[in-house]
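Q: How do we represent a protein-ligand complex in a form that can be generated token by token?
A: Start from the inputs.
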Amino acid sequence: MDTVDLLLAIFHHILVFSLAAVLAAEVVLIRNEMTHRTIGRLAGIDRAYGLVALFVIVVGIVRVFYGLKGWDFYVHSWTFWAKMAAFAAVGLLSVPPTLRFLSWKRQAGADTAFAVPATELASVRGYLRAEMMFFMLIPIFAAAMARGYGQF
Ligand code: HEM
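Then emit the structure tokens for the protein with protoporphyrin IX containing FE bound:
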């Protein structure tokens, strides 16, 4: 029984489920009317999103090197690299919404009459939908990767 591998797997699952929950919260909140309170909540949740994603990366990399299978198993697996590519896509697609949330928060703080422009709202909704689609690919590649599919 390898306790380190078990603990890494437990942390990894808790973190990736938290990441899924935070992303889902953003997708739900962005559908609401964009009151200044909602803007503040979105900016706060988005900060948590960044922090959890950072922990996912750290624990994930530790799993690659100190898990039961080791770096060699993952480096020769296209499903591992596909998983990393999908995760990178989610990360890149999360940048424009983050910048928008910060800008809306700043403008709402400076002007009580500030309203989020419909075009900016539609664009952020589009990015979040794309993030969700790429995110859905990750557990698919993860399950295949863990069972040795895609070794080369
Ligand atoms: C830099 C980011 C990440 C790295 C380096 C990483 C690495 C790993 C590693 C090494 C494993 C162990 C696989 C095995 O048992 O052989 C694993 C499993 C897993 N990862 Fe990640 N991961 C990352 C991000 C994510 C994300 C964002 C998700 C979100 C869905 C995720 C979901 C999973 C799942 C579901 C498993 C279990 C697979 C299974 O046993 O069926 N990972 N990950």
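DSSP finds six helices and no strands in the chain. The chain has one domain: 2-146.
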